Amino acid sequence: MNYMIWNSCGIGARSFPALIHDLKDHYKLNFIAILETRCAQQMALIRAQRLGFADMEIVDCEGYSGGIWCLWDDSIGEISLVECNHQFIHFQIINSDGTIWHLTVVYASPNPLTWQNLWDNLHRL
Question: Which residues does residue 84 pair with via DSSP β-bridges, in sequence order?
């Protein structure tokens, strides 16, 4: 399985969908997490659905910062959302061989006042 996590610094460019398709094809990606999308929820769903993945989980950005997109193919196995908030998405993944593991994708706010809340949540997981 091939996974990629990328801080995009915004996905507004017209070339973005073609870039994701190229990355997916070139690296045979089964899962991609795109951070700092800077894209509102309604537009995020429309754009993400055009990227050629079977399923997705999207955390909306807050203003002009943040945003987490996780997109994956069915070949990855079974992915279950355990918890998410504006700074992370936590999944349980069951591979096709039955191996169970967890994946947490974090986009930490640049605001230090929110870091303690993030650490508290991550420790709880």
Answer: 89
